Amino acid sequence: MRFGEPAALWALLIVPLLVLAGWGLHTARRRALARFAGGADRVARFSTEVSPHRRAAKTVALLVAITGAILASARPQWGRGTETITRKGIDLVVVLDTSKSMAAADVAPSRLGRAVRAASSLLDRSEGDRIALVTFAGKAALACPLTLDHEAVRLFLDAVDVESVSVPGTALAEALAEGLRALGPPVAAGTEAKGRALIVISDGEDHEGGLEEAIQAVKRAGVVVFAIGCGTEQGAPIPEGEAGAYKKDAEGRLVTTKLDERPLRTLAIDTGGKYYRATPAEGEVEEIAAAIAQMGTSGSSTVLRTRWVERFQIPLAIALAALLIETLIPDGRRES
Asked: 121, 293, 308, 331: least surrounded by Cβ within 10 Å?
């Protein structure tokens, strides 16, 4: 026997406290009645209409009901069974560029704002998938590990800005490696999840190199990459410091950042995925969600899982029966 919510058993400490409180109230009531009657020897004449035995039975029934309700909330379980589980979701890592260039406003509200909105929309369309979040600039960092709790991922996503990674630059290859580490080792056949994918959302700038080796590692891991490019070919200056200030080079000229689609397209195509440019209508998110759904269907699997049989119905039934009995028992004495 075990309990699904063992913490609820701490509430059983209330039962002896209720017993003590009831005894205290009963004693106080008798003392008050004795004072009113003019002495303890005269209390009996005021107790002819109330049966102390029935009142005690009602109290016991109420305590049994409370105890049964607490035990039911703790979810007692005994006996084991098996259930068949079919999971069609995949493991998905959102790899989000948070470098300084993502603050450029050549797309509204900014490249990073558009990227966060696309990732959030993807969360809404990925029910049943485990999702992780990796952010990167000059280095990559795992912001949230794989989880089915999409709201937890959304909390980390909402906190993302261009200061999320302190090291400047854009290390796309390291971000891919971190994404693979977040996915874990390749999934063996016959287990729950088979489909695995990376969603890379970036402006395509890559200052560190090593992308070809990273693509080969992704292919060896059997991971599909979908890439979303944020920005325009015309580009925009990079905001820096105070409002209205922009990054300048050593000669005092504005530094303009442009969308570089080439590495993102190469990454996606070489791994069996597809490249999209971010749009206000988010049609690219719809297409990626549809492709992921197909991966989940083709990668579905069935497993047998051992589970404990819930028995909360028994203490709950006892609690309801005790409440009914407490209601049916009258306080008055039986007339002879």
From this structure: 331
Enter the tokens of residue 313: 């119905």
Coil vs helix vs strand at 89: coil
The half-sphere exposure of 8 on its side-chain side, counting CA atoms within 13 A, is 16
Conformation bin of residue 166: beta by default, left when phi > 0, alpha when psi is -120 to 50: alpha
Residue type, 271: T
Grade residue 40 by pLDDT with cuts at 50, 70 and 90: low
Task: Report the C-alpha gap between 176 and 214 in whole angstroms.
Answer: 7
116-159 pLDDT tens trace: 999 999 999 888 789 999 999 889 999 999 998 899 999 999 99
Q: Residue 116 is encoded by which pair of tokens?
A: 């966060």
89-299 domain in CATH 2.40.10.10? no
What's the pTM value of the predicted model, to 2 decimals? 0.61
Q: Which residues contact 322 (CB under 8 A, 6 or more apart)?
A: 61, 62, 64, 65, 68
User: What residues does CATH 3.40.50.410 cover in the chain?
Assistant: 89-299
The token duo for 297 is: 């269907």
